[in-house]
Write a structure and sequence with these properties.
This protein folds into four domains: about 160 residues, Pyruvate-ferredoxin oxidoreductase, PFOR, domain III (Pyruvate-ferredoxin Oxidoreductase, domain 3, 3-Layer(aba) Sandwich), CATH 3.40.920.10; about 170 residues, Rossmann fold, CATH 3.40.50.970; about 70 residues, no CATH class; about 110 residues, Rossmann fold. The protein is about 35% helix and about 20% strand. The protein has 19 helices and 20 strands. Helix 5 packs antiparallel against helix 6, helix 9 packs parallel to helix 10 and helix 16 crosses helix 19.
Amino acid sequence: MKNGLNIFIGGEAGQGLVTIGELLAKSLVRSGYSIVVTQSYQSRIRGGHNTYMIRVSPEEISSPRESIDILVALDQNTLNLHQNEVSPSGFILIDQGFWCDGESCLKIPYKQLASERYSNVVALGVLGSLLGIDQDLLLKTLADFFGKKDPKAGEENRRVLVEAFRWGSQKPSNHKLPPAPKAPGRMMMNGNEAIAFGAISAGLKFYSFYPMTPATTIGQTLAGYAGKMGLVVEQAEDEIAAINMAIGASFAGASSMVGTSGGGFALMVEGVSLAAMTETPVVGVVAQRPGPATGLPTRTEQGDLNFVLHAGHGEFPRAIFAPGSVEECFELTRKAFFLADKYQGPMFLLTDQFLADSARAIPPLRIEGLPFLQTSAPNPSPLAPYQRFALAKDGVSPRLIPGLTESRVVAGSDEHTEDGHLTEDLGVRKIMVEKRLQKAAGILKEVAPPEYFGSKNPDLLLVSWGSTKGAVLEAAEEMRGKEKSVGVLHFSQVWPLVPDQFLGFLQGAKEVVAIEGNATGQFAGLIRREAGFEIQKRIGRYDGLPITPEFILREMKN
């Protein structure tokens, strides 16, 4: 695998392990390193076994790793669970009051270095010294993180970090990071934050949600910027209310988005159909986690593709995007907004817990000059009586905003005539169904093609979609050069599919393997249905853990 280290921090919720992880990750990014963060947490406020893993490298990396180089055990349970995962050259940091046997154990005198309140700062200082991070940079990151609200606590943070750094500097370390290449400053961002920023940049004005892991932090991020950016962020009483609020806001001219996970999306399905019937733009984010029902509420999976594809009663067009990186979370959120506005209906972003919580080091987002939606601008009044659902060749009718025009804007959930009034005319019904379906032809023309990596007509072709992108690319890189050419075909838009964009890659490979985070090969089945090509070999992961390069390589041997 690529050079770098895997730092694994484990403990109970409430012990401050996320604080340690975020401070260390920010410091590494500021030092110029590439990172991939993977979080694992249980569905409880305190207690339980939680982890925060940082893979760091001076080279560009894009996936997690399994083998642990540095294990920071904040409790005995973490040591018991993960000691066997530590690499032969790795070591363990643990409180001197816990049991840990062997030369790989470095016992830290937490209580001597600081009070319990500052134990996470002690861990940060010791880790920073062992990794060779500049102490002043750590201090600056610490000060920025906690702010200046409590000067006394800030001074104590500084004192503790300096003391812990000094203690760690006296210990031998064979895990000091090589110098990072000099590169322009980068920012640390996870998938949910990138979705929030992508939505704001596209012109988002209204976001509604009911908190549901792993989508909740989209709303929290947006709420933090609501005042500055003129957003309305509404925590609704349930998911039914959330999507209906978003549809209502969009009908009134505010670009709207709603976020949830599979269980919450189940409650939104009737609202999805309402958006389709009223031809109202709305973007839905479904952050996947294992089901059925509550399943594993804080783990990851790619099990909701078929659900989102077929959600809603009746027939209407849609597009589904599945970002494979933090940057794609930003870019594809924007694309979903513009498609929803252009074709006047629901569009979807399909992510998952791994990508939602996975922080990366990315170049600053370029937002200068990006177009954004302004659907709430006043509309001129037409000379003729306004028909909200007027027939058009492309299925897209002129859209006026009620209250911003002298024309009467009529819409309802029943089938309707061109002017929006309810109808029982079966001939009109047929025409209106066909009108809405005509939008599919326009959406089809704007489908983002899959990315192909590797040589032409390879011996082995790996097919992937969504958040598995980084792991599949690294696994392919590992397999290349072993008397086998390897290609990767990765999809970041999973509906609609255009066979002409990818069928040649599938037919030109000697062997094709589909890699997905589900048990039934949902995307491979979609390819068979739409393109007539059956991918007979599949690798699926559905134990709640993210797909890693090591997992793929193990499964390939089988």
